[in-house]
């Protein structure tokens, strides 16, 4: 009888250890980061109220020169005060016009015509603007168009100390200790259904990893768009899985990863 009780105790302890060992994302099985690019009206009008209704916080990558920023500063400030991250998406959103499919990039915002100094200065100017809005000294960066280099030079090298991390645009499910904080993996969502996004979350969980969703339009206002109803279904799923899934801003997850890599 004693052996039987000892076996049960050992089995229970083993199961408890296995469950706890799998919960290495702030005590949960995986992390999810909801990011939204380009400072769109719909982010303020629809996305933030929807996130707030679920008590989730998102990361909004703002382009400093956008009128949606300059004309709606009080609303962005209120969003930041409520826990959402205002991330840096540069001052003018420069993209490399020499790459395929970049006919829409105008000459003034062609990253291939920038100097490294100009790119760095514009990002830092945008940081000053964002700090004036939210008063915060820590945030993350997102590469416009996912472009890293100016004539083979990684311009973020000069900005590494200005940010907690930088979100890229390459998908993947790395372990926390393997994450490159200069190029944090992200999944670009365009026309994606809730079922597809939920499957991505489940893959991240299975891998013991995390997932960063990269949204633009949610219900319109951008050529890269996800239906608002599908976006809401994803949030409903995440709410139901709150015990197992940590939904947080990019800056908070990047800080957590940084701690794990020490």
UniProtKB/TrEMBL annotation:
Keyword Signal: yes
Signal sequence annotation: 1-21
Family annotation (SUPFAM superfamilies): Glycoside hydrolase/deacetylase
PROSITE patterns in alphabetical order: NODB
Record field: transmembrane: none
InterPro entries in alphabetical order: Glyco_hydro/deAcase_b/a-brl, NODB_dom, Polysacch_Deacetylase
Coiled-coil stretches: none
GO biological process, one term: carbohydrate metabolic process
Pfam families referenced in this protein's UniProt entry, alphabetically: Polysacc_deac_1 (PF01522)
GO molecular function: hydrolase activity, acting on carbon-nitrogen (but not peptide) bonds
Protein name: Chitooligosaccharide deacetylase
Lineage of origin: Bacteria, Pseudomonadati, Bacteroidota, Flavobacteriia, Flavobacteriales
């Amino acid at each position: 009888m004693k052996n039987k009780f000892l076996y049960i105790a050992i089995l229970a302890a083993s199961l408890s250890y296995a469950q706890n060992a799998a919960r290495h994302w702030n005590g949960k099985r995986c992390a999810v980061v909801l990011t939204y690019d380009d400072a769109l009206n719909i982010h303020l009008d629809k996305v933030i109220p929807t996130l707030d209704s679920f008590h989730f916080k998102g990361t909004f990558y703002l382009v400093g020169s956008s009128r949606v920023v300059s004309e709606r500063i009080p609303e962005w400030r209120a969003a930041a005060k409520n826990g959402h991250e205002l991330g840096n998406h540069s001052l003018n959103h420069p993209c490399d016009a020499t790459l395929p499919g970049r006919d829409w990039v105008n000459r003034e915002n062609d990253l291939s015509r920038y100097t490294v100094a100009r790119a760095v200065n514009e990002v830092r100017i945008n940081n000053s603007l964002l700090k004036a809005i939210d008063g915060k000294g820590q945030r993350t960066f997102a590469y416009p168009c996912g472009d890293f280099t100016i004539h083979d030079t990684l311009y973020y090298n000069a900005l590494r100390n200005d940010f907690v991390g930088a979100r890229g645009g390459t998908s993947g499910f790395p372990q926390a200790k393997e994450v490159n904080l200069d190029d944090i993996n992200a999944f670009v969502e365009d026309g994606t259904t809730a079922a597809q996004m939920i499957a991505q979350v489940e893959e991240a969980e299975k891998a013991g990893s995390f997932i960063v969703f990269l949204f633009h339009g949610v219900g319109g206002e951008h050529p890269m768009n996800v239906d608002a109803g599908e976006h809401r279904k994803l949030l409903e799923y995440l709410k139901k899985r709150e015990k197992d899934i940590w939904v947080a801003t990019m800056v908070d997850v990047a800080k957590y990863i940084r701690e794990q890599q020490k």
